[in-house]
Amino acid sequence: MTEVLRRRIMHQAAFEATLKEAFLAQQVQLGEPLAKASSETIVYGGKYHGDDVAVKIFVPAVDDIGDALAAFGAFKVECEKTMILSRRSKSILQVSEYGDAELPVGLASELHEFFPVKLLPFMITERARFGSLDMVMKHRRRLPGFDRISVLECLVTATDGIKEAHEHHVAHRDIKPQNILIFAPGLGKIADFGIAKWRSRRLIKETVMLTPKYSSPEQAFFALTGERETLVDMRGDIYSWAIMVYEVVTGHHPFNWAIKGMRDPAISQRSLLKAIAANDRRGFQTTGDITFDSLIYNCTCDLKHRVADIALANRVLKQFVQRLRLAGQDSDSLPTVR
User: Fold this and answer.
1) pTM
2) Which residues contact 133 (CB under 8 A, 6 or more apart)?
3) Which residues pair with 190 in a beta bridge?
């Protein structure tokens, strides 16, 4: 956590009051935060022209102005490209508007450090009724219509959005349950292209950004060594996608063994990255379903032999889900690891 973020937390009430005042001028009524704030952005629920929306706001809590400016440029690219992609596929979180809100006049001097670019860049999107995939998986037994098969169907629809991005040469690079938003049983969408690798993207200062648990071996190797970033491409998205699918079907993450019993976050993260970079497969247990096991293997094997088309992988997943539906299997009779 940066020093700026620590101080911002101390002044949280005044910080949030400033945001709400600024966005009233944009005809946006901010509500409660929808996600934990990162060092660059925060997401609020809200109302916009009477509709429930999510508002992603760029408020970098960094100690270096150079980092803030580099992140500012990346956020603007994210907004523009995400809007373009969302117009091409309903399986991508739909963007209503993006722009810059101005800070309120007469802002208290002690709050200025929390707004280093002197603007509040934002992106307004539709709001997912059920939140993200990880939340649904955690609470699905209390949610009507959500068995594990319907959750897999959410992944199928969200994957159509990933396919659209890939067709436009965009690697998402952060495929994980928190970035699959659930709108209804069987309806998911891909969100958060914040660290996507755009063909035209140029940053002043590159930073290794990833979610270790869902990173590909190429991402993990780059995070550990700073080498071979050119290998991080759309095939990494397919690897991360397969980890999610495996976790939904089996109820187990294949790399939990690498951090079991560890208490120090820094050590556990490095241990996890090492196991993934080596593609240590001891956690990938077979389920007995040949189609499913082959799908997971072909999407998580070495880079040279890995499936390179997510549309092909999704087609196999869709057939697998349809077979489960036709067999009348419920959430408790899916294949289990052996």
Assistant:
1) 0.90
2) 151, 154, 155, 177, 178, 180, 181, 182, 188, 244, 248
3) 92, 180
